[in-house]
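[Q] Does anyone have a clean structure-token version of this?
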Amino acid sequence: MTVTIAAPIAGTVIPLTEVPDPVFAKALVGPGAAVDPGDAATLRVTAPVSGKLTSLKPHAFVISHRPDQGVLVHLGIDTVHLKGAGFMLRAEAGQQVEAGDEIIVWDLEAAREAEKSLVVPVIVLDADVEELSVAEEGPIDAGGVLIRIS
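[A] Here you go.
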């Protein structure tokens, strides 16, 4: 059964190797892709897959779509240091979500002022890179197919 992981934001697909953080770039957390939001001022961050919202922080969340696998969406790099500034949670940890549901609204101003990377890694936890096919580099709409898991 193929699982489709949607882009949680609109932007430009970039390979994980271009994410300015070695933990993501070397796929130490897991394989995936990233989306660069470009010049956006505010992002409506949506669930990339249906499942249980097992972890929710202002700057990141995990949705478990299978008992043995989840999807991590990390909003920017080192944005944990913003201590929640610019992030408005629209969901609660533990709830069931559908792909496309709004999870976080992100005002990018605080991250830009702090000179943080705005790149959004989307990581498939507990997956092998061989299981994934990732969208080609280039523009993607929120909800567009970012990753397929076979």
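[Q] Thanks! Anything notable?
[A] The CA atoms of residues 36 and 65 lie 24 Å apart.
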